[in-house]
């Protein structure tokens, strides 16, 4: 039985007393990829933030690698949406990936040769080794997303949390992302991906957690992303969504 | 004259470095707020202890502002720009009210707002050097963490960094540069030193190290040019130009020059 990397038990999260997530259960095993599926505003990002210990849970417990989330951050990598970052920022692709080493390098010290090699390898894994010296903002949206995944790989995490990594990503970058995530999974990393793209969930993930403020299903992708459950989670708009998948 | 030049060169290094972080964090308004909130500290310091009270007064006001700004940005109830505008206007008005009670207030007000560059003392030089070293040490030692926080605050928090603590360090550094410059360049014109050096560097490069280097150089060159113009005007033409203002004008001129020769790919 593989280790449980992320365990979520009857978790409720509230902002200003109003619950935004209610009674969520689920888990991500080592070597497994889980899709977090739900419409906009369903609380997907909030659940990821809770797993990082950045949002307090009102009730229930979240365990990351057997520890409280805040104590496990060294072994967890978070990949934000690339388009939340300033494209004008003066920083090279290589420097962005190297940021993944900062926690292990520690305070007051500079990344060494070994750190640079790990970062270069990570960039190679997402297929962008030749863009190392380019400024981050000059890359396409999909390429920027791959650079952020490379940064997460450089952290050498046991759990990866990806927030909508396929949004606005071209086909080439989408394939590169899927390939890289597949490789991480084979190496035993646990991966949680939030997305509203059902076809990608089918393609990339073993299990799905269907969410819209409360949980509508958790289990193997084929059993959870069914017409009935999607109708319950998305309401009337689900037909169009599922048709697109 | 030499003291004034030394003061400007001592200011150029921390100003160039701090302005890089002001640029990448887009903290122009924060910097402007600090320049205004240090003003009442300068006035109170002067009223309480004469010229010797100005530095400690500015220091207290600057540190207090840095803490307040950090707390304000933590709170989700108040929007940042409103809070800062209230702080900026309120503290500045307080300074004006305090200084207006003095009979010689026009002369004093001018000195506090625009500095007295040619009256810089050896003690002020020592203060500027000490403050500059402190700022450089703090920003140098935390450079990689501050850069990460500026680029991707969500990832910084996810990695376990205390973002508010990094913000406090930067806000204090901004305040310290304002404090160091208050008596020579003045609390109002120092905003130029906090923004224009790195803004000039950014026009010429997309690399942080180059931006910082250009920023320091621009601040130093502007210090020399501004002082030289002010001196030449007074000696040759009998015109008395405010030294701090000519330095800022030189800085603006360098910025405009960079705008003309900029490499388009640096900014694109």
Automatic annotation (TrEMBL), chain A:
<dbReference type="GO" id="GO:0005524">
    <property type="term" value="F:ATP binding"/>
</dbReference>
<dbReference type="InterPro" id="IPR003439">
    <property type="entry name" value="ABC_transporter-like_ATP-bd"/>
</dbReference>
<feature type="domain" description="ABC transporter">
    <location>
        <begin position="6"/>
        <end position="237"/>
    </location>
</feature>
<dbReference type="GO" id="GO:0016887">
    <property type="term" value="F:ATP hydrolysis activity"/>
</dbReference>
<keyword id="KW-0813">Transport</keyword>
<protein>
    <submittedName>
        <fullName>Manganese ABC transporter ATP-binding protein</fullName>
    </submittedName>
</protein>
<dbReference type="InterPro" id="IPR027417">
    <property type="entry name" value="P-loop_NTPase"/>
</dbReference>
<keyword id="KW-0547">Nucleotide-binding</keyword>
<dbReference type="InterPro" id="IPR017871">
    <property type="entry name" value="ABC_transporter-like_CS"/>
</dbReference>
<keyword id="KW-0067">ATP-binding</keyword>
<dbReference type="Pfam" id="PF00005">
    <property type="entry name" value="ABC_tran"/>
</dbReference>
<dbReference type="InterPro" id="IPR050153">
    <property type="entry name" value="Metal_Ion_Import_ABC"/>
</dbReference>
<comment type="similarity">
    <text>Belongs to the ABC transporter superfamily.</text>
</comment>
<dbReference type="InterPro" id="IPR003593">
    <property type="entry name" value="AAA+_ATPase"/>
</dbReference>
